[in-house]
Design a protein that fits this description.
Blueprint (H helix, E strand, L loop, with lengths): L2 E4 L2 E4 L4 E7 L6 E9 L6 E9 L2 E2 L5 E2 L7 E5 L5 E6 L8 E10 L15 E2 L3 E6 L1
Parallel strand pairs: 2-12
Antiparallel strand pairs: 1-3, 3-9, 4-5, 4-10, 5-6, 5-7, 8-9, 10-11, 10-12
């Protein structure tokens, strides 16, 4: 299983970017897919995640970090193993390397997993830089 992020770049404060996470295959029936980010000198933190069951987002599974609520939106392409992170109203504090991660789920939980320790596969990351 491979995870590849794309869509990062340089944007001015208040601008938007859409990140894409392409997963080569989902062999488990249920998977959590998450976006994390790591700013320079800081620990990696979850931004958003969702749970996919048999290719479809499970209702109610989505999570957003407080910093992302109202500005970011996570979604899955219905026909492809691609998860997007639409980021609006970007601020300099959003500058970070953004990572996509996949967790293969054996027992489905009500919400997606927010701890990076739970994730099995990671992408290389994509840089997002927001200028003031």
């Amino acid at each position: 299983l491979q995870v590849v992020e794309s869509g990062g770049g340089l944007v001015q404060s208040g601008g938007s970017l859409r990140l894409a996470c392409t997963v080569s295959e989902l062999t488990f029936h249920v998977n959590d897919i998450a976006w994390f980010r790591q700013a320079a000198g800081k620990e990696r933190e979850v931004v958003s995640c969702l749970t996919v069951g048999d290719g479809t987002t499970i209702d109610g599974s989505t999570h957003y970090a407080d910093s992302a609520k109202g500005r970011f939106a996570i979604s899955k392409d219905g026909n492809k193993n691609v998860v997007y992170l639409q980021m609006n109203g970007l601020e300099p504090e959003d500058t970070a390397v953004y990572y996509c991660a996949v967790r293969e789920i054996v027992v489905t939980q009500p919400k997606c997993s927010t701890g990076e320790i739970w994730y099995d596969y990671w992408g290389q990351g994509t840089q997002v830089t927001v200028s003031s």
